[in-house]
């Protein structure tokens, strides 16, 4: 699942679950919505991503590239080492600011609260 939230200067995309080939049908619509919002900063919250393949990486790269062409920036928050490696192998890690200071909220199992 991908959710979009905005503030006057920032768009935040929160990804939950897999960011992969199976989710690709929603990528064009989300990219169009994000691009249409025209915020200077795009934050991609990856705290709840369980798996990302090259299709998911290509989606993130396209978002970052579109923002850069408009003079904006894209930040990754809560990105796993594995996902950072995928972006690095794609030669695209330099398109992103990596928020290394972010601490993801802990997962709470249902019924344990």
UniProtKB/TrEMBL annotation:
Residues 1-113 form the STAS domain. SUPFAM superfamilies: SpoIIaa-like (SSF52091). CDD domains: STAS_anti-anti-sigma_factors. This is STAS domain-containing protein. It comes from Actinotalea fermentans.
């Amino acid at each position: 699942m991908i959710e979009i939230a905005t503030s006057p200067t920032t768009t935040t995309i929160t990804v939950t679950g897999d960011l992969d080939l199976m989710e690709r049908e929603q990528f064009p619509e989300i990219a169009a919505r994000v691009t249409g919002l025209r915020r200077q900063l795009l934050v991609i919250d990856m705290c709840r991503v369980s798996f990302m393949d090259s299709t998911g990486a290509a989606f993130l790269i396209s978002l970052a590239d579109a923002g850069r062409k408009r003079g904006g920036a894209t930040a990754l928050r809560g990105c796993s080492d594995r996902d950072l490696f995928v972006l690095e192998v794609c030669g695209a890690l330099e398109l992103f600011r990596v928020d290394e200071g972010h601490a993801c909220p802990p997962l709470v199992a249902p019924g344990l609260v």
